[in-house]
Task: inverse folding
């Protein structure tokens, strides 16, 4: 005689696996990560386990404060490989602003990259609001930085004002 098998637990396990797999596919589709680090960091941040590398972030701040902006961005990228930390992305955007700033003209390419980094910071920030409490910065919010980056990309009659050369970088 054959015994009747209870397939209920196997079916439930299969259903749970299918739902989790579908959730992973939906998450990947909505976030569209570009690297494996972004995938693992994104999953880790979803459960609250993601953190930046403090040593690399400290290196980035040191480079940033010494006006070594390319090196600062490289260190910040090491600190936040998954691009999930709003503060780190804010500093990357700020470094693009400082590198692209000029007394006579601004580097539109650097400002465009700064806006992209700022958009990433806002996307991962709680409530979409980025505020950095660093007394050495003159701009502390994403809104202030965005205003400077956008203003630097626009051409206006005030750009021809010779007094502009006395303006200071923020």
Result:
């Amino acid at each position: 005689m054959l015994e009747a098998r209870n397939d209920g637990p196997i079916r439930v396990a299969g259903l749970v696996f299918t739902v989790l797999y579908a959730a992973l596919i939906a998450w990947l589709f909505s976030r569209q990560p570009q690297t494996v680090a972004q995938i693992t960091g994104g999953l880790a941040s979803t459960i609250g386990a993601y953190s930046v590398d403090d040593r690399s972030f400290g290196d980035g701040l040191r480079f940033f404060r010494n006006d070594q902006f390319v090196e600062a961005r490289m260190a910040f990228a090491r600190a936040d490989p998954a691009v999930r930390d709003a503060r780190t992305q804010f500093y990357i955007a700020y470094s693009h602003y400082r590198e692209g700033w000029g007394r006579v003209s601004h580097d539109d390419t650097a400002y465009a990259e700064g806006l992209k980094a700022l958009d990433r910071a806002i996307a991962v920030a709680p409530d979409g609001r980025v505020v950095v409490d660093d007394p050495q910065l003159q701009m502390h919010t994403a809104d202030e930085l965005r205003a400077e980056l956008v203003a630097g990309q626009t051409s206006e009659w005030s750009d021809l004002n010779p007094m502009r050369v006395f303006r200071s970088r923020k």
